[in-house]
Amino acid sequence: MQEFVDALPLPAIVVGRDERLLAANAQAIQLFGRGVLGRHYITSFRQPALLDAIEQVMSDGKSRQARYLSTEARRDKTWAVHLAMMGADRPMLITFEDQTATEEAGTMRRDFVANVSHELRTPLTALIGFIETLRGAAKNDPAAQARFLEIMDREAVRMNRLVEDLMSLNRVEATERIRPLDLVDLASIARSVIHALEPLAAERGMTIVHENLEDAARLPGDADQLAQVITNLVENALKYSGFGKKVTLRMETVDNHPMTRGPAASLSVIDTGDGFNPELIPRLTERFYRIDNHRSRELGGTGLGLAIVKHIINRHRGRLRIESAPGQGSVFTVILPTKVSI
Ligand SMILES: Nc1ncnc2c1ncn2[C@@H]1O[C@H](COP(=O)(O)OP(=O)(O)OP(=O)(O)O)[C@@H](O)[C@H]1O
Ligand SMILES: [Mg+2]
């Protein structure tokens, strides 16, 4: 029996006719501890769902499935347990199939759909409401009509942005495993982004300055995606700073960066805006996460900007470093390897 379970790729246990654990392979020992060998199954497993299944299989001899939950290094794991007699009046074989990844993927998918629906619902509800008003109460009021159409326009633009961001997130995820190999110049990409965002900065009375963007910084990359990274970071710096503030883009190239363990270019987007509590840093790159929900929405944000940034940087095998303190502004630094490594 021991040799038999040792040959199985899953945690496997054999329970003898005397209801004691007859054999367990190394994976099962890791799950239940060495002490279970020779013990009664009731004291070994303890979870009612599994115990019930064992009793039923013993009484009618029919194979069954059950769920077993464990905790490993503070992470919950879910197991699909298969129970079967190895012949009439023979021991029972119990195997444990790890279902954690599948369950987590399911939860993530459901959360994602719930978030998207919620984000779309707010502007849609507004649109439906205003259409009704335009048909009814505001039917003969051109001033009100103009005002409502303005709001409807804004809400439609917001929905459009959300859909665009979702599609771009999808595209980035689809290419994440394919390393970009074209040599691009990060400095010139950054300069063109600054050029494109200058009108937005001017609108807010802000200026964008750059340091060390004159010399080329060549690296293997996807030019469009890198432009999107810089755009999202500079847009944030502009959005979350007050009127008249300054945003700085600073480029540095180093022979050996500790965060990528090799030659790298690092581009920092520095603002002197609101800043935030550094405890929130790990959450910023989550999809739909916004520190100040209301404020971000007001500014037309979807909360997907930094999630997209993160995926693009991953694809480039780079790193994102975020530093901030409330009222002190923030620094978002993108560190990208400059050498193609296999
Ligand atoms: N430079 C910054 N200063 C202060 N807070 C920031 C800065 N950049 C991002 N944040 C915070 O992080 C949150 C997430 O940023 P992210 O770019 O992912 O979403 P967003 O800006 O709200 O929406 P979107 O980028 O999709 O328009 C923002 O809502 C904001 O609260
Ligand atoms: Mg943003």
What does the model show?
The protein has 342 residues and is of the alpha+beta class. The chain folds into three domains: 97 residues, PAS domain (Beta-Lactamase), CATH 3.30.450; 76 residues, Signal transduction histidine kinase, dimerisation/phosphotransfer (DHp) domain (Helix Hairpins, Orthogonal Bundle); 164 residues, Histidine kinase-like ATPase, C-terminal domain (Heat Shock Protein 90), CATH 3.30.565.10. Helices cover 46% and strands 24% of the residues. It contains eleven helices and twelve strands. The strands form three sheets. Strands 2-1-5-4-3 form a five-stranded antiparallel beta sheet, sandwiched between helices. A hairpin with a 5-residue loop joins strand 11 and strand 12. Helix 5 runs antiparallel to helix 6, helix 6 runs parallel beside helix 11 and helix 8 runs antiparallel to helix 11. The structure holds adenosine-5'-triphosphate and magnesium ion.
The CATH C-level class name of the largest domain: Alpha Beta
Specify the CATH homologous superfamily of the largest domain: Histidine kinase-like ATPase, C-terminal domain
Radius of gyration: 29 Å
Main β-sheet, in a few words?
A: 5 strands, antiparallel
Number of helical regions: 11
Bound molecules: adenosine-5'-triphosphate, magnesium ion
Mean pLDDT: 93
Percent strand equals 15-25%
What's the domain count? 3
Order of helices and strands: HEEHHHEEEHHEHEEHEEHHHEE
Widest sheet, order of strands: 2-1-5-4-3
